[in-house]
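The freezer alarm interrupted the setup, so I double-checked each line after restarting. Inputs confirmed:
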Amino acid sequence: MKKYTFTEKKDTRSGFGAGLAELGKTNPNVIALCADLIGSLKMEAFIKECPDRFIQCGIAEANMMSVAAGLTIGGKIPFTGTFANFSTGRVYDQIRQSIAYSEKNVKICASHAGITLGEDGATHQILEDIGLMKMLPGMTVINPCDYNQTKAATIAIADYEGPVYLRFGRPVMPIFTDPDQKFEVGKAWMVNEGKDVTIVATGHLVWEAIKAGEQLEAMGIDAEIINIHTIKPLDSEAILKSVAKTRCIVSCEEHNRLGGLGDSIAQLLIQNDLVPMEYIAIDDVFGESGTPAELMKKFGLDDLHIVEAAKKVIGRKG
Amino acid sequence: MSVSDQEIKQLEEVASQVRRDIVRMVHSATCGHPGGSLGCTDYLVALYFKIMNRKPGFDMDGIGEDLFFLSNGHVSPLFYSILSRSGYFPTSEMPGFRKLGSILQGHPTTHVPGVRMASGSLGQGLSVAIGAALAKKYNNDSSLVFSLHGDGELQEGQNWEAALFAPHHKVDNLIACIDYNGQQIDGPTEKIMSLGNLKAKFEAFNWEVIEEPKGNDMRSVIEVILKAKALTGKGRPVCILLTTQMGFGIDFMMGSHKWHGVAPNDEQLAIALAQLPETLGDY
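Predicted 3D structure, all chains:
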């Protein structure tokens, strides 16, 4: 298995902040909006760079989304920033009518996504946001896996015409992707080529999948690991090519098992190549308070659960 | 800007034709929202045919021209007639209103030339107009943004988020008009969800507020918009409380919420059209 190491851990939201600050220097049309969460979204550097292009919206997310939609009329590229919960569920109708249906070039940037938000508990741990957003026609959904990828994705979506949902997180995680990577929307990243099982992972679960891959290797199982950072549009070709070889697949995401990446893959397989599949996802329950690591373990999202799922799905190949 | 009696008469003629278009479209579709459409007709005729500085053709960004946003999207037959009569698309599209395959959907969409934002789900238009007004400021574009809102629509909480936001950010290139007809689907707004003193409310939010009790009188409408324009550029957003009558122009529809969302039958259409001179030629 290809070796992945890290020397530093950072939160993906800081990758967003770094990418946004870069855009502050390079793209005069980028406008940042925030609903009273500048520190949490790591927007300070952007604000320092271009204070006039930052709009504080206060605790009023519905207004922020529609103001962002209006800003596109005149060629601005608004990036909204708040927690994932308040970026999606709370403002779904605003996004649906004024952004998605109206085909507006708004970048909805959502931090503290998933269970690893941690101690704040279920009120803030949205586990339905990928599903909500991928169901909107024309919406692109991206969930990068580490600091570097999040930074690259943030920069890339400024030049990608159309509404985008960019989802990232709160906890520090290993930085293991290339700092100079070019982020291509909709293009899967081959983390490790293998032949026995395909493990497809998004967001924080990519590092867990790499750790699982190393353990599987020690057991003599050669796992192919694919990072799907863009959940919609899905890189169908990469997934189908992989399962044509491995004949089984495990999907891994920090989201409800209903409506997330796994369901998109299952739909693809049903229509094209029906191979055994296992889900690593939250089992249709609300979250709870705890540290990110405790929650990943309790809700079955860590490397050990991926190893078990991989063994199980290989056993189902028959 | 002075307005001659002759010009007022011409604008009233446009309004008569727009009202004919509204009832004919709604009758043909056998559904739609004539009441509010007829009530706001004079305001939109004044905006599009007299007040707004518009560029020929249509581009989404609208840089260098005044923009209009319709928040109460259910008055789509009015909006479509206005857009068509002012040249954004041929009048031959109007028979398609609410029918399969037409660009003229039940509620406005950005697929219609002249429409910059979908509306229908209420309460979003004020925020959108604020965003567009901010974009104009970023672009050093001195033209204005106008918006129209139902009074019942103000029951949606997002309006009050927007009402707080606009003065805070000194959005003073925006004129938001409230169609103050006192009616909503289930009855009078006072009975359904009282709005209280709207003038005092907007003033408390630090808006410039102008009241116009004669919202279906063309000269009064033009004068109040000119007054509102004179208040722009002074650090605060401007709100016009425009008292109108739902169903204005057709005696049996006037002043009642009952025609909010009901289409006239053949007989009612004939009575309605007899009260509205055909001035620009029916579509």
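Quick read of the result. Residues 51 and 225 of chain B are 8 Å apart (CA to CA).
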